[in-house]
Design brief:
Low-confidence stretches: none
């Protein structure tokens, strides 16, 4: 037969201060590597142009800069078309006032599209 007794002992654990330093460093790395994923979310943009004429799209982009400096334009080339989208809207309701104004300024081909938008992290 085996008789075992357990004795409780006070033990002291010494933690290496380098562990705290490594934890802080890992937190910094996590912050940097996840920043982009927190800046880009699904949302909406307003497509203003979908044309093959590069010069014409750049002229529209210039007008957007002048008339709507608060809207960031995004120019995408998908051969043979140049697509110009503007804004970063979380909801269609947020985009609606701009959609109406842009439709008046550019009567053909202005509509709301789903896109990945840029947001400022909280």
């Amino acid at each position: 037969m085996y008789n075992g007794f357990a004795y409780a002992q006070d033990s002291l654990i010494h933690r290496d201060p380098r562990v705290d330093s490594l934890i802080k460093k890992q937190i910094q790395i996590n912050e940097v590597t996840t920043r982009d994923s927190r800046r880009n979310i699904p949302g909406y943009r307003i497509q203003v142009a979908n044309l093959t004429d590069r010069n014409q799209v750049f002229a529209i982009k210039t007008r957007i800069y002048q008339s709507y400096p608060e809207l960031k334009p995004y120019l995408i080339y998908q051969p043979p078309n140049y697509k110009l989208k503007v804004g970063n809207f979380k909801t269609p309701e947020e985009a609606e006032p701009y959609l109406q104004k842009l439709t008046q300024d550019f009567p053909s081909g202005v509509y709301l599209v789903h896109d990945i938008i840029e947001v400022k992290p909280d």
